[in-house]
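Purpose: get a first structural picture of the assembly so the mutagenesis plan has something to point at.
Setup: two entries, given in the order below. No constraints added.
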Amino acid sequence: MATNWTIEGVREAVAAKKVSARELAGEFYKRIEARNPELNAFLTLSPERAYAQAERIDAMAAAGKALPPLAGVPIAIKDVISTRGIRTTCGSKILEKYVPPYDATAVERLEKAGAVILGKTNCDEFAMGSSNENSAYGPVRNPEATDHVPGGSSGGSAAAVAAGLAVAALGTDTGGSIRQPGAFCGVPAMMGSYGRVSRYGLIAFASSLDRIGPFARNVKDIATVLQIISGRDPQDSTSTTAPVPDYRVEIEKPVKGLRIGIPAEYFGAGMDEGVRRKIEAGIELFKKLGCKLLDIHMPHTDYAIATYYIIATAEASSNLARYDGVRYGLRVEGDSLLSMYRKTRGAGFGAEVKRRIMLGTYVLSAGYYDDYYLKGQKVRALIAQDFRDAFTKVDAIVTPTSPVPAFRLGERTSDPLQMYLADIYTVTGSLAGVPGISVPCGKVCGRLPVGLQIFGLAFGEARVLQLAHAFERAGGANL
Amino acid sequence: MKISREDVLRVAELAYLDLSEAEIETYRKQLDDILEYAGKLNELDTRSVEPMAQVLTDDQDADATLREDLVVPCAGAEEVLAQAPDPEPPYFRVPKVIER
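Result (structure tokens, whole complex):
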């Protein structure tokens, strides 16, 4: 059986009855069984649901019916996204036994399009982390270099796709949690604009920043998945009614003459030299493709990490107040209601989650709100303005996804601030709400993938995908 | 030093978090480092900048997103209560709050 399945390949093979969706699901479970003990990419498998769906697809194929776009495609879902009847832990002990009574809209849409949900992928607890080392269920290993982290927080989804344990996966991105693991594991990974994909059923970390998006083997598959999960959902008031273009058609449009901005602020100190050379080669490739390169400035870039960690933790401290041992999840008994709350939360949350709840509570507390939270919101406006200004001059912005390639397991866990600084090139787009993709751009040290990031205008996903597709076809991954 | 031990205890109280002695000192130091770093935002003059709470486009404003208040089916109470640590259908049971 083929090893590098793509969405199109699966659909064609199932339609031509070269393979049944059931056989394919079985093949992927075999691969997971062989590889997961080492990688730890999956936390929960859902074979019952997967086989039931595969059989529905096979029945459609047998009856000669037209197959939906994701017919029989094995997909993995990050464990912060709700799946009806399938345990959803958020990588946390506090939700160790939680089984959601409903599906996230994105999951519902994937399944309606024929996808086969294999199971739930490991991640940093409540999506808080950049290395997947904050999972209560142990770290994920990078399939390209198993002594290195896969990135985070969607490390399990990235690793699953990179290792061929799923054809595509959903992750979530709040400050870089799709793009950075995509870069570290060497697979394309995208967040659409804020509001493009419904967040209904995404267990909240920071509501003004959280987004659901895809990992896949190639940019065309990213376009296919994004297409299906995008669009207005009455269950999420922040999801937009803006029409969803046909991304699979859009990506084929020529990129010649497009203006690409290269912001000087994304090539500063602290950047790995190997990464710098690969990204420079990537920029040269865009030039060869006929794009116009422009040096631009985004002067507030250097303030993005501080802004992000104020706003994201403030929102997290509020969102995570719901874990109180009453309605779902862990309860540790105490001699009063308040002592039950404190003990439950003290025992159920891991170190990073507690740290962020503490930080967020502090910046929102009386006497500090203006100095931190309000200040952060104002600087967020300046960062968003940097993007608006840039897009009056250019069609897209190209940067590294991360200043460094995947680091070693344990290398950065002792200093949270150093870990936060790893998100320096991704948090800007998160704060501004614009779409961004990471595409593979060669490897350093012969094995560690480098990711090139492309930002576009809000709701300009088509342009981002078009450039990423052209870059990939021109050999960007092998630079 | 911006953050004292008392600050950590006050914040833990607000957030309903039981912390161990070791955690109190670790978080004091780490929050101190992070807030020290966050202080760099004061380099920027933001007196004339409107705070940005949310990324919203025109069609995401309240008029466009408010819907009619209709009754629609949702997950059954039984299924929801089944996730509770101590359910007493149709209620969630909690430790005694009021002494009488």
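Chain B has a mean pLDDT of 88.
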